[in-house]
């Protein structure tokens, strides 16, 4: 499986797998089972290990760690993937397609080539936590729920003592249980979703027994430790000490009253946003999923409108690890020209039904910005406030997200809108509704806003030295 090397040092592979999370590793296993075709496969991942965020730092934690899920599956897939050419700690910053070959521009360790080409690409992007601004959310001690899990997997301990976990959706249960298992205390889970949003999960549960078992395990941990659960409620204020350098309490608005919890840390999550920057660079077709996320449009074999470009895993919608594994296998079999067996198709259908129920439970409520104070930071990088955003929206004729971004600088900082971009699109949509735009117009504009905020000429930061070397 040695790649062909040309005199200009550009390497050409039959297949490039971008992303070594569950979907990418599952695809690699299929390719390993058919070593003659494709002849050369390369795996590229920004982390220094294979496994993505789900299996983050698995080698550093004890095998019986409560944060290991599907551990034997990981060991099997990891062994198969290690047999291919791997570029780890490497990011694909740009991608181009000339109708025959994809050109991938890489930024990694010195021995990594700056450019490779591939006949086919399987894109298995990860996600990042969606965030909605809350009064006090920039106080030290406020983390994303996914960030809390990453911290625990990295260090084996919780990043605080007493927590309140808030946002929307079932992932709040997983985050809270992880905190407790890591030695922390969770006072309350604050979920903006109504009880009806959870009914779908109960109905879809029998289609995914492992997910039901996992959820019941979380609930047992939470009940045993006396965690309070508030539905159709939201965190309205995160209060700090006099110097503003740590959290001291959290105000929660329920349907009936306001409650205050003492806490020194807060975990927030409103679902997840797939990282589609490379796909958008190619002009890939997208849609808005049920949870409001921008996702790639794929056919039954996970091929996109771009010939020979496949997307599997969270890039097609958040399905969880089991759904990602199935998608990775189907995409790899399709690339090989193999028939996908009926059982695999049925497994995919089951996971999709469950994921749709999951996504319904993480919808952000319309009143998300009602309690925001004018001086609350909206964009953490550029320090744009809610009054900057709201003031522009209410007085401007151009209320699309890019116009707001250009006028207020929200989304123009180091993270390039990964933190505030989704909220910016929500704010624009809310203003359209206030101006009585039709529902169809609001939804179409929201889709275009998500694409505009998600599209980036460079998918990751690069050094000036790298840009100078990459003259293409």
UniProtKB/TrEMBL annotation:
It holds the Pfam family Pyr_redox_2. Transmembrane segments: none annotated. Residues 13-316 form the FAD/NAD(P)-binding domain. InterPro entries: BFD-like_2Fe2S-bd_dom_sf (IPR041854), FAD/NAD-bd_sf (IPR036188), FAD/NAD-binding_dom (IPR023753), Metab_Enz_Cyan_OpOx_G3PDH (IPR051691). The keyword Oxidoreductase applies. Keywords: Oxidoreductase. This is FAD/NAD(P)-binding domain-containing protein. The keyword Oxidoreductase applies. GO terms for molecular function: oxidoreductase activity. It comes from Corynebacterium hadale. Coiled coil: none annotated. Gene3D superfamilies: BFD-like [2Fe-2S]-binding domain, FAD/NAD(P)-binding domain.
């Amino acid at each position: 499986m040695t790649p062909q090397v040309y005199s200009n040092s550009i390497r050409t592979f039959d297949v490039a797998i971008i992303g070594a999370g569950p979907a990418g590793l599952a695809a690699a296993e299929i390719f390993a089972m058919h070593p003659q075709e494709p002849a050369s496969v390369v795996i590229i991942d920004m982390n220094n290990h294979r496994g993505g965020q789900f299996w983050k730092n698995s080698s550093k934690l004890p095998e019986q760690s409560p944060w290991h899920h599907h551990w034997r599956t990981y060991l099997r897939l990891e062994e198969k993937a290690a047999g291919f050419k791997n570029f780890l700690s490497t990011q694909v910053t740009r991608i181009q397609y000339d109708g025959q070959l994809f050109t991938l521009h890489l930024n990694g360790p010195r021995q990594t080539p700056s450019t490779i080409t591939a006949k086919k690409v399987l894109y298995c992007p990860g996600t990042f936590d969606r965030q909605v601004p809350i009064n006090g959310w920039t106080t030290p001690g406020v983390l994303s729920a996914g960030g809390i899990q990453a911290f625990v997997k990295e260090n084996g301990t919780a990043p605080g003592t007493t927590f309140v976990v808030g946002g929307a959706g079932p992932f709040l249960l997983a985050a809270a249980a992880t905190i407790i298992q890591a030695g922390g205390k969770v006072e309350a889970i604050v979920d903006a979703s109504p009880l009806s949003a959870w009914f779908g999960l109960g109905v879809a549960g029998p289609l995914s027994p492992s997910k039901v078992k996992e959820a019941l395990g979380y609930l047992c941990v939470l009940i045993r430790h006396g965690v309070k659960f508030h539905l159709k409620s939201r965190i309205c204020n995160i209060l700090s000490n006099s110097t503003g350098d740590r959290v001291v309490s959290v105000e929660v608005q329920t349907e009936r009253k306001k409650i205050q919890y003492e806490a020194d840390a807060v975990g927030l999550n409103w679902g997840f946003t797939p990282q589609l920057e490379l796909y958008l660079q190619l002009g890939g077709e997208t849609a808005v999923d049920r949870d409001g996320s921008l996702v790639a449009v794929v056919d039954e074999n996970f091929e996109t409108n771009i010939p020979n470009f496949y997307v599997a895993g969270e890039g097609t919608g958040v399905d969880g690890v089991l759904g990602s594994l199935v998608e990775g296998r189907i995409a790899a079999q399709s690339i090989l020209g193999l028939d996908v067996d009926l059982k695999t198709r049925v497994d995919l259908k089951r996971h999709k039904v469950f994921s749709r129920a999951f996504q319904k439970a993480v919808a952000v409520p319309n009143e998300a910005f009602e309690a925001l104070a004018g001086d609350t930071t909206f964009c953490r990088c550029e320090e744009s406030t809610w009054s900057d955003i709201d003031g522009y929206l209410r007085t401007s004729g151009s209320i699309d997200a890019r116009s707001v971004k250009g006028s207020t600088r929200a989304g123009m900082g180091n993270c390039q809108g990964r933190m505030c971009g989704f909220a910016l699109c929500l704010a624009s949509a809310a203003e359209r509704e206030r101006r009585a735009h039709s529902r169809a117009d609001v939804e179409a504009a929201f889709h275009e806003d998500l694409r505009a905020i998600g599209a980036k000429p460079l998918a990751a930061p690069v050094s000036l030295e790298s840009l100078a070397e990459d003259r293409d």
